[in-house]
Design goal:
Structural class: alpha+beta
Radius of gyration: 18 Å
Length: about 210
């Protein structure tokens, strides 16, 4: 029921390529994992003054002008704690709030698997996104509820990928007794797809799926 208004990835891509010229190589300005991102002009923390930002490795980072625009923008949602960008060559997280109360535990193996999942959908230039509402058990701090909120990805397969990714996360609770003090929050996801198939290849995949 959750995804009843979403398209499958192949159907959605086939509709898009009827109107777009399909490219066969990754854009030249795409930053790969081997490139070092230089820190630009420092910007205010997107979660508000005084908030400390953490990345997917559990490292403190700054908000700056060379960050992805998705990470730079000011947050207008008070319980938005995490922003996640995933493509076939990147898995990046910015925790923008409440790092004094809760932290995501790094999971490099899971991050790599998420990138591999996205790679399967690299058919055309496209960006999809969605908000996931997380509820943790107030005693154990483990995942209790997960649902889309505000925005559901347009592609059914991407929606499933996002839910699966958010479901695997584990958290460190920083209270004196180790009990969770933050149990409800939002994760904002952005998924970036790149063209890796020709128009004819996409049509053939769609025909096989039918």
């Amino acid at each position: 029921m959750l995804f009843r208004n979403s398209f499958s990835i192949l159907t959605f891509v086939f509709i898009l390529i009827l109107h777009l010229s399909c490219k066969t190589s990754q854009p030249a300005n795409v930053t790969t994992v081997s490139e070092t991102i230089m820190v630009g002009e420092l910007l205010p923390p997107p979660g508000g003054d005084g908030e400390v930002i953490y990345n997917e490795l559990g490292e403190v980072v700054q908000n700056h002008s060379n960050e992805l625009p998705f990470f730079q923008k000011k947050s207008e949602i008070p319980n938005e704690l995490f922003r996640v960008f995933i493509s076939s060559d990147k898995y990046q997280i910015r925790q923008i709030r409440s790092s004094d109360k809760i932290l995501r535990k790094p999971d490099l193996g899971g991050d790599e698997l998420a990138k591999e999942e996205v790679k399967r959908f690299d058919l055309i230039n496209f960006i999809d996104d969605g908000y996931v509402a997380i509820g943790l058990n107030s005693n154990t701090g483990k995942l209790e509820t997960i649902a889309f909120d505000r925005r559901v990805p347009r592609i059914n397969d991407i929606a499933k990928l996002i839910q699966n990714d958010a479901s695997r996360w584990n958290y460190e609770h920083l209270s004196k007794d180790g009990m969770p003090t933050v149990v409800k929050f939002m994760i904002n996801y952005q998924i970036r797809l790149y063209p890796a198939k020709s128009r004819d290849e996409v049509k053939q995949m769609l025909q096989k799926k039918k």
